[in-house]
TrEMBL record:
GO molecular function, one term: transmembrane transporter activity
Organism: Flavobacterium faecale
UniProt-recorded name of the protein: ABC transporter permease
Main localization (coarse): membrane
Domain of life (superkingdom): Bacteria
Locations listed in the record: Cell membrane
Length: 416
């Protein structure tokens, strides 16, 4: 065993000596592997960071949450012209389902509306995401508060002029003041601030709670009615835990069809969008991004591997005379093999480490500039190093075998 460790040590020393004696050639050989490892690990780290951000943003929602509306989250077999004729869900349908649907924890009603500006005295916040929603929304979304509270059922049903501000909106309008109990103007109307949400950070899908405001949906209904084309209503349902989702969707479909007076044979003029379907769609996209990243980066690694193999063949040719002398003095074939194999692996691993270093620097810069946490995980570091070693092993195996099989006499004569 000690003999083998000595053999490995001497082979390693020979490899390091050969690399340091040919610095320019070593540097050029590193470039291919460095670029390849950088490409793969940068893509994997970006996808991992994206996945973490999505998981964080969606963690407050139950995967069984249902969005009942006239639009579908994904592709549909129903023609577009027919889908465009579907009616929006109504507030009366929300009340009906809330009172009659079984195995349900929460039912809420929301309207998707355009962005607005909101004012307080001489200060204005623009591009504000307005969320008109019923009081049950807090039990679905799980909002956390920095100050104050969410509006209650009575305030929601009466459409009281109260409002909950996102953290950034509150800072923009009130700076260091306490906003609770103060007034802001929205839609030309005066609202009383009753709550401020905790800071959450930039949202992955555009709007964040920090730049949103929440107000009773009935206030908007009173102002604009239920048939405004600029607003998209949705009923949000959170089924009871452990419920059979197929049976639950069948009950929901039956009740809504009955309420709308639909006849047998008519297709459903609404979509039951289960949130898990959306997350599965996102997971599929992330998987495809990973595959594409591997394919694109694989070409860089292939080029890097060929570069190392070429350099190793050159190295064998240059040191043919030395190989012949070593073998004539008793060096075994496996000693020569390990010598060149280690040189190839070390060269590749150094290139991989440099590539990982570039990814690490990029992650720090991207996190600071984009307000997005770009994470280089230990798993990706290990994967990058492992890939680099494998590339070095594969690229160096043929040159190393050819060197180990040289005849000592012929090698000395050829090298002279």
């Amino acid at each position: 065993m000690r003999l083998y460790f000595r053999l490995l040590k001497e082979s390693f020393a020979f490899a390091v000596h050969a690399l340091t004696n040919n610095k320019l050639r070593t540097l050029l050989s590193l470039l291919g592997v460095t670029i390849g490892i950088f490409s793969i690990i940068a893509v994997l780290a970006a996808v991992d960071s994206l996945d973490r951000k999505i998981t964080s943003d969606l963690s407050s929602l139950d995967k069984n949450t249902i969005y009942l509306m006239r639009f579908s989250f994904g592709p549909s077999e129903i023609p577009k012209w027919k889908r465009e004729q579907f009616p929006g869900v109504k507030y009366d349908e929300y009340v009906y389902l809330k009172n009659t649907l079984t195995n349900t924890q929460v039912v809420a009603y929301q309207m998707f509306v355009g962005k607005e500006l909101i004012k307080h005295d001489d200060k204005t916040a623009t591009d504000v995401n307005v969320v008109p929603v019923s009081s049950e929304f807090i039990d679905i979304q799980g909002l956390a508060f920095d100050k104050g509270r969410f509006y209650n059922e009575s305030e929601s049903n009466s459409g009281k002029a109260v409002i909950v501000l996102g953290y950034e909106i509150a800072i923009s309008l009130f700076e260091s003041q306490n906003p609770i109990g103060k007034n802001v103007r929205l839609y030309g109307q005066r609202f009383t601030v009753i709550g401020v949400l905790q800071k959450k950070g930039e949202g992955l899908f555009g709007d964040s709670n920090d730049t949103s405001v929440y107000l009773p949906v009935n206030f908007i209904r009173r102002m604009y009615g239920d048939n405004n084309d600029a607003m998209t209503p949705v009923i949000i349902l959170k089924p009871a835990k452990g419920v059979d989702m197929d049976a639950y969707k069948a009950e929901l479909t039956g009740k809504l069809r009955s309420f709308r007076g639909m006849k047998d044979g008519q297709i459903d003029n609404f979509f039951i969008n289960v949130f898990s379907g959306f997350t599965n769609l996102i997971d599929g996209i992330i998987s495809q991004m990973n595959v594409m990243g591997w394919i694109i980066s694989g070409f860089s690694l292939l080029v890097g591997g060929f570069g190392i193999a070429n350099i190793m063949f050159v190295s064998v040719k240059e040191r043919t005379n030395l190989i012949g002398i070593q073998k004539s003095l008793g060096a075994k074939n496996h000693f020569i093999l390990f010598q060149f194999l280690f040189e190839s692996i070390i060269l590749s691993v150094i290139g991989g480490v440099i590539g990982l270093l570039f990814v690490f620097i990029m992650s720090i810069v991207a996190t600071k500039l984009a307000d997005f946490e770009f994470v280089l995980s230990y798993g990706n570091v290990f994967l990058g190093t492992f890939l680099a070693a494998i590339i070095g092993l594969i690229a160096g195996i043929i040159p190393a075998i050819s060197a180990s099989r040289l005849d000592p006499v012929e090698a000395i004569r050829t090298g002279m």
